[in-house]
Write a structure and sequence with these properties.
The structure is a single chain. This protein is mainly α. Helix content is about 70%, strand content about 0%. The chain has 20 helices and 4 strands. It has a two-stranded antiparallel sheet with strand order 1-4. It has a two-stranded antiparallel ribbon with strand order 2-3. A hairpin with a 2-residue loop joins strand 2 and strand 3. The longest helix has 28 residues.
């Protein structure tokens, strides 16, 4: 085969994302010119920085020239978020290299052939089971970024089952995001926000299970209806043309004959060991102090060693492995400037001194609202702040100290406020082009951001209706304990 190994970002998808992010950078810069600068006092509580909600005051607007809007993608590397950005980029490159080796060696196609042969008569049951699995690891353990290495495999499985890239993204990273957002015991959103609110840890889990099951039903119906439509007429797929190479490689006769030269037993043992290690890291990270900060690079490193080692054991040879690795690096490299640009939007707003002003203005509107409307405003405020602060834990420390006293004032329980915050923090992760995980996953596939948004628009609509309905129920029953 002459096609390049691994994920290859198309020029068109790259340019579309580049333009969208550039527009958002300029808009963020314009906001720094028109919104007054203000600040809350930061205080340390149990070693973590949080906000004094009564301390907001106007400050002198920083001298932040226009030209720095465009150097922000480079400056962000030296900011407090720089280490996180670098880790995300290295993780992306490791995933790209490993997937390219697994692709070039034929290991991936052989594994898919075995899986498809086993479930060919039950493929919709397989779709539902995979979707439930990814939702559960997000809902229970707060796993999100760490599943990125599995996304290309799920896309390839989708090809093999007769579907398209979007279906593969839907049953993997989209399902994880839905579970992360409809969280049951997610320690990074539910856990942090409840701790800040003084609520018993993971309280209200019964109500959250109902939310989880409702969101699973919405996503399952969305994916099954779409997959059946693609199966009946593949040309209706928004990415039909872009999927041509993937369909040829992973569907039908494209899966035949790739096991002949593989030394299969040592390959599967080696790869299986590293996959088990990755799962152990993912499950343990929320509960082992310090491991959660290292889980992303550790998963990337394990996947890299597992993938490259599998290629060598399969008989590729050092030169072939190096060539596949290089193709993987080159193919995924255009995602790096996109990640830097996405990260720079928060940097621009912070440098302009307006982040606290935006938060303060929104908090004032909540204090004048009815309980139900206040809950919805908290939801939409979290959706808005997500544009600038992608981290769920960081956003909780920024927002919750301000929102909780207002929640008490307007008559919504703190548990409802936490739920509204978690909805807004989570469901926006795969909607905004400022989220690095979305950029990475789209970069690993042929899907452009505009096509992704058009495909998911109806899903977001139903999710919004369901979650607002649950907020209304929570307000009506005084979802608590307080």
């Amino acid at each position: 085969m002459n096609e390049k190994a691994g994920a290859q970002i198309s020029q068109r998808a790259f340019l579309q994302s580049l333009i969208i992010l550039l527009v958002l950078m300029v808009l963020a810069g314009v906001l720094t010119r028109v919104v007054p600068a203000g600040s809350y006092t930061r205080v340390l509580v149990n070693g973590r920085e949080t906000i004094d909600p009564a301390s907001y005051h106007l400050v002198q607007k920083p001298d932040y020239p226009v030209w720095r809007w465009f150097t922000a993608p480079f400056e962000v590397l030296a900011s407090p978020d720089g280490a996180t950005v670098i880790v995300i980029i290295l993780f992306l490159l490791m995933v790209g290299v490993s997937f390219a080796v697994l692709d070039k060696s034929g290991i991936l196609r052989y594994a898919l052939a075995r899986l498809v042969g086993r479930f060919r008569g039950q493929k919709y049951l397989l779709l539902l089971a995979i979707t439930l699995f990814f939702m559960l690891i997000g809902a229970l353990f707060g796993i999100f970024e760490e599943v990125v290495p599995l996304v290309p495999m799920m896309v390839a499985l989708s090809y093999a089952l007769g579907w398209d890239t979007l279906t593969g993204l839907g049953m993997s990273i989209l399902a994880t995001n839905m579970g992360f957002s409809a969280a049951i015991t997610n320690p990074f959103t539910i856990g942090v926000a409840q701790r800040l609110a003084g609520l018993p840890l993971f309280s209200g889990a019964g109500f959250r299970v109902l939310i989880f099951l409702s969101i699973y039903a919405v996503l399952a119906v969305f994916l099954v209806l779409y997959a059946r439509r693609i199966e009946r007429n593949p040309e209706v797929s928004p990415v039909y043309a872009e999927d041509r190479v993937g369909r040829e490689k992973f569907s039908g006769t494209g899966l035949e004959g790739y096991d002949k030269n593989l030394k299969l037993r040592p390959v599967l043992v080696w790869l299986g060991v590293f996959l088990v290690l990755i799962v152990l890291v993912l499950v343990a990270a929320p509960f082992v102090p310090g491991l959660s900060d290292l889980s992303l690079p550790l998963v990337g490193l394990l996947f890299l060693i597992g993938g490259v080692g599998s290629g060598l054991l399969a008989g590729m040879g050092g030169k072939a492995v190096r060539q596949a690795a290089w193709e993987g690096l080159v193919g995924i490299a255009p995602a790096v400037p996109l990640i830097l640009m996405a990260s720079s939007i928060k940097f621009i707003v912070a440098q302009g001194g307006i982040m606290d002003t935006l938060l303060h203005g929104a908090a004032q509107s909540i204090s004048q609202a009815s309980p139900f409307l206040a809950a919805v405003i908290v939801y939409f405020l979290a959706l808005f702040i997500e544009l600038f602060v992608a981290s769920g834990s960081a956003k909780a420390f920024l927002m919750m100290p301000i929102l909780l006293p207002i929640a008490d004032l307007v008559g919504i329980t703190r548990q409802v406020a936490v739920t509204a915050y978690c909805f807004g923090d989570g469901f926006s992760n795969l909607a905004y082009p400022t989220n690095p995980v979305l950029l990475i996953c789209l970069g690993l596939t042929v899907v452009s951001y505009p096509k992704w948004i058009r495909w998911t628009a109806s899903l977001w609509f139903w999710v919004l209706l369901v979650t607002i309905a649950f907020l209304g129920i929570g307000v009506a029953i005084h979802f608590g304990p307080f």
